Amino acid sequence: MKEIMAVIRMNKMNQTKKALADAGIPAFVAREAYGRGKGLVNQEVLKGAAEGNEEAIALLGTKGRLYPKRILAIVVPDAQVKDVVDVIVSVNKTGQAGDGKIFVMPVSDSVRVRTGEDGEAAIV
Q1: Assigned CATH for 2-36+66-122
Q2: In angstroms, what CA-CA distances link 123 with 45, 75, 78, 84?
Q3: How confident is the model at residue 119 (pLDDT cuts 50, 70, 90)?
């Protein structure tokens, strides 16, 4: 089993949710988050802005800003990982910075609280 953690734009949430459901993946967890990519940020400009320097604040613009995002957590059997990643990419790829990131991590076990099922039986 794998956990797929996807960081996506807020305005792509409904499209992503529908695409995942259409692909047979209706269950996931979504959280609100704020973040930014690795864009070049000059630390001296940040320091000047923190000290109240108006020129530094003007230079900073929106580079240091945190943007609203959604984080999706989806646990699937290994065989479904590629399909889920492909769906998320197809909906969220605009070709612009900020399209998001996807991380795939191993999951050692899962348990369905209601029935006590464990392993893949708990997620399918």
Answers
A1: 3.30.70.120
A2: 48, 7, 12, 14
A3: very high
pLDDT tens-place string over residues 10-56 = 999 999 999 999 999 989 999 999 987 766 566 777 777 778 877 76
Sheet holding 101-106, edge to edge: 29-35, 67-76, 2-9, 101-106
Q: How many helices (H) and strands (E) does the chain have?
A: 4, 4
Whole-model pTM: value is: 0.79
- The C-alpha atoms of residue 89 and residue 12 are separated, in whole angstroms, by 11
Contacts of residue 81, defined as CB under 8 A and 6 or more positions apart, other chains included, come to 2, 4, 104
> Which residue bears the tokens 């604040």?
57
